[in-house]
Amino acid sequence: MTQTSPDAIRQILSSVRTIAVVGASPNPSRDSHIVAAFLAARGYRVFPVNPGHGGKEIAGLMTYASLAEVPEPIDMVDVFRASEHVPAVLEETLALANRPGVFWTQLGVRDDASAARAEAAGLAVVMDRCPKIEIAELGLPRRSPEPG
């Protein structure tokens, strides 16, 4: 079942540390850029994913051409692509050796068949929500930096 309760979303956003933002834009006025920068500023390790900008920076963060190129395990995939691209992003997510625990799609992005498939594979699913908005509405504190 897609996670929609405030408690479920609070638990997800409090537990994840690494987030891949699929469809991150180099344009600072685009929501995907703003959200990636916001999440990084809140203490998450953010990995922008954009095939046309791999090896470059988006929001001051090294960008990867695919999820498979991200150099460390991802806790959450945040999809900033149109709904028709969600199945392909899910396929890429499920192909990862270290599968993320959370598959999240942004406001206006929904694919119920992909949600069911992701849940069947053991992923928590949040669709048609924005983590930036949820963090603000839930009053979540900034994450502490990783020890080390």
From TrEMBL:
Pfam families noted in UniProt: CoA_binding_2
InterPro entries: CoA-bd, NAD(P)-bd_dom_sf
PANTHER family the record matches: COA-BINDING DOMAIN-CONTAINING PROTEIN, CYTOPLASMIC PROTEIN-RELATED
Annotated source species: Methylopila turkensis
Protein name (record): CoA-binding protein
Location of the CoA-binding domain: 13-109
